[in-house]
Design goal:
Layout (H helix, E strand, L loop, with lengths): L1 H85 L7 H17 L11 H11 L4 H10 L6 H9 L25 H16 L3 H10 L8 H11 L8 H17 L1
Amino acid sequence: MACLFNQLYNIAGKQTRISELLCKNFAFQLLYQRNAYHLQQCRADKRLLEYNRDRLYERYTKWKNKTHAERQNILYLQQQILVLYNNPPNQINMADARRLPVLKLMAPALAKFQPYTGQEPPDDYLDKVIQSWAYLEGHMAVLEGANAGDFDDAVKCNILKSMMGRKYAPVPANNGLVVGNPAINSPDTLRAWMRAKYQRETVGNQQSAIQRSTQERYQPYDTPDTYEARIRLLLLGVVDNDVQVLGFLKSHLQAIFILG
């Protein structure tokens, strides 16, 4: 009888022990799940921090490059101003002296632009730069009207030339990329050279650009703006009213009318 009681006692003790172990196991599982959740959150936070760090560094790099470009432009203009200030009156170029106040007003606007290195189509860049000094056109016209050459196209062209960088600097005296090798002495002739240079650097020579334009079509998903943006890059260095190119473009327009 005593043996039976001992066995029952042992069984009861083991069951109690099993219950305790099960409780501990359950508690450990809860603790593990909580720690696993925290670990997952930490990993997510780490990825977010790394992403934000990369974005912050990217923004810092862009800001640094932009600031450097602005400093370079300001330094260039300040050097021109200092040259004018430091020259004795009997040696100073009077035209430079007369345009100096306008150049000083123009300097902050030009400092906002990075040197042109092909980062966007030349027309877009030039239009923005020229627009930035639009409020000074009246002063330029007065100077030019009073003394021819004070602020003519050649002066404006030299200002724009100073904003070229990398493969686009220095600007040659003549545009050897187009027929006739014309002089680059005005904003328009500089624009023509930049178009041809940009096309050669990004698309290829004129013949390859024309060949690529023949392969283009107005697609069903296109809008007039997207089509124009795509075609314009191919035709930057092509002379106006080129018969061959006009034929290709007319065929594209016919496709537009058919699709419509």
